[in-house]
Amino acid sequence: xxxxxxxxxxxxxxxxxxxxxxxxxxHGKQAHEDDLDDVIQRARDVGCSKFMVTGSDLEESKHxxxxxxxxxxxxxxxxxxxxxxAKLFDEHPGGAPKMLQELRTLAExxxxxxxxxxxxxxxxxxxxxxxxxxxxxxxYFEAQLDLAxxxxxxxxxHSRAASEDFERLLAPRLAKLPRRGLVHSFTGTLExxxxxxxxxxxxxxxxxxxxxxxxxxVVKALPLERVQIETDGxxxxxxxxxxxxxxxxxxxxxxxxxxxxxxxxxxxxxxRNEPVAIARVAHVIAMVKGISVEEVCEAAWNNSIRMFGxxxxxx
Length: 315
Known about the structure:
Blueprint: E1 10-15, E2 25-26, E3 29-30, H1 36-45, E4 48-53, H2 58-70, E5 75-79, H3 88-91, H4 95-112, E6 116-125, H5 134-151, E7 155-160, H6 163-174, E8 181-183, H7 190-198, E9 202-205, H8 213-221, E10 227-229, E11 257-258, E12 268-269, H9 278-289, H10 293-308
Parallel strand pairs: 1-4, 4-5, 5-6, 6-7, 7-8, 8-9, 9-10, 11-12
Antiparallel strand pairs: 2-3
Helix pairs in contact: 2-4, 4-5, 5-6, 9-10
């Protein structure tokens, strides 16, 4: 796909499409009309032809599956419970075993229907222990890893300030998962990235992965055959204060953005990242690596299809 006559194509492997802000609802208040279809259309217009909609707890995973069934062949779901939500296992009316069983059923049924492609978002987050204590995070990361191995789903992983425990729990199980998985929204050190790659994992890059000079060095060193691209919208936008912003010269322009109170059709909302911005993430990766955007997109597309399928045959 080296020649630029061919349109670029993207998979946004991490998009929180079930977030109410994409329906115009912020903190429980309706600020503007539901513009989810516009958000999706804008992404399609820049060549984003596959979405992986993130499940972050049992309810959100159900929402992700519902979105995948509404947009078949375009949206796919992940099913799992985020480390910051791991306490929900113990709070579940039927207890943790019941919740694990419900997760299993949701995953198995939605795989069967062709909607779910990864187990996640699971992992460890020691930056936010105020949301969920370490013991619960460890216990339910391990339980969910075992479930993913049983049903043979590649992993969609989250790791923040927890690399030692993260790798200790992950390593013995990865051998049993032929398609391994991906560490999404990666912001770790160069050493951590090298260890992830050595374990056979891919690395998801978004605006948060491009924030500091150190982040950019990591992305520069990340092997192309391990890169996948995401926006993590509505979060993780590239901001003017980020180290990556100096690489935005010549990047695709985004639609005009306005405050949510002044929303108008066709505009983005200030502070609400959306998947159309994936083209800018790819542009920065290409600039940092000193290669063409086409090369970045083609590699990332192939890596995503190889790992998650997404209704395509891997070439």
